[in-house]
Amino acid sequence: MLLLIFYLRKIAAYICSMIYSLLRKALFTMPPEKAHYFSMNALKKICNTALGKEMIEKTFNYQHQSLHTTTFGLTFRNMIGLAAGFDKNALYLQEIKSLGFGFTEIGTVTPLPQSGNEQPRLFRLPADKALINRMGFNNEGAEAVRRRLEQWKEKNPDDNFIIGGNIGKNKITENELAWKDYAICFEKLYEAVDYFTVNVSSPNTPGLRALQDKDSLRKIFSELQHINQSKAKQKPILLKIAPDLSQGQLDEIIELSDEINLSGIIAANTTISRDNLVTDKKTIEKIGAGGLSGKPLQQISTNVLKYISSNISSNIPVIASGGIFAIEDVEGKIQAGAQLVQLWTGFIYEGPGIAGKLCRQLVSKKQEI
């Protein structure tokens, strides 16, 4: 009977995948940012009813005890996470959970609300299975996000779904005072998230990537760890790095990791590179600045992941992010040293069944061993 249920769910997931391939054609006629909110708000309406939520979970969600994994002191129901930038304001927690993700990372959240960069600021490159974005940390601000997270916890007091808080600085804040912005977000979101990620690697906030230098990181993390140590229960603090760092810059981060009591590293954010794209050069030039994600980022981010995981202390886990679409991509990240993975662009191209599909395949491979 269990085997029958397994195959029935597999068939249902396949049918949904075929349906999404048709739906995607319609969504791809819409501006990317509009399509994102349209589809997620539609999913939210479905999940707002008990029957709709059950239907979504039975169709897409696949959980198994063998998928449980403990990393930096937290137990994740599976290793497939949704990266920051997808749900900036914690609007879709139930929907993301119902789709079968093991965890999600909200944000990037800044102390003050900000509208981000001028639209259009999100672009598809279908030929490359990629996106370019220059969103610019558009979010409702730490206070509004905190309230929404508190409402989630009040509504789901016994829920074990892991939520990370990705934090950044406001565009108007000078780099010399950036540590204050990170500290404000850390304090406001402390009780509402399970772990923190310090984002100093987005290419879409002017000067932000300069904060990846040793002295800036030391200042930011010393302030955050000071606050962390004053709490009854400390929260893991991770660092998300750019894939465009030199080996020397990576070495500096590795050297600093123990000193700043780093809980983990996410490798990596979007790239500013435009190398080896199928999309014609004129289209790329017309799009302009922004971070590139998706398939073209896969090997770049894996190289950074492998270097970091091979050289950093064994007690500092690495989360892989960049170019994850299929089980082979997950396996490649694991072989390179990842303990968890995050995806974003893969969701857009592969559809809402991606987490459940990957989890099902991970269990199948475990059972084959």
Descriptive notes:
With 369 residues, the protein is an alpha/beta fold. The protein has one domain (63-368): Aldolase class I (TIM Barrel). It is built from 13 helices and 13 strands. The strands form three sheets. Strands 3-4-7-8-9-10-12-13 form an eight-stranded parallel β-barrel, surrounded by four helices. A three-stranded antiparallel beta sheet has the order 5-6-11. It has a two-stranded antiparallel sheet with strand order 1-2. The radius of gyration is 20 Å and the shape is globular. The chain starts with a helix and ends with a helix. The mean pLDDT is 95.
- What's the count of strands? 13
Distance between the termini: 22 Å
Strand order in space, largest sheet? 3-4-7-8-9-10-12-13
Stated plainly, the CATH topology is called: TIM Barrel
Largest sheet: 8 strands, parallel, barrel
- Please report the number of helical segments: 13
**Would you tell me the overall average pLDDT?**
95
For the record, the CATH class is Alpha Beta
Q: Layout of SSEs?
A:
Blueprint: H1 2-27, H2 32-47, H3 50-60, E1 69-71, E2 74-76, E3 80-82, H4 93-98, E4 103-109, E5 122-125, E6 130-133, H5 142-155, E7 162-167, H6 178-189, E8 195-199, H7 214-229, E9 237-241, H8 247-257, E10 264-267, H9 281-287, E11 291-294, H10 295-311, E12 318-321, H11 327-335, E13 340-343, H12 345-350, H13 354-368
Parallel strand pairs: 3-4, 3-13, 4-7, 7-8, 8-9, 9-10, 10-12, 12-13
Antiparallel strand pairs: 1-2, 5-6, 6-11
What's the quick description here?
45% of the residues lie in helices and 15% in strands. The chain is α/β, with parallel strands linked by helices and 369 residues long.
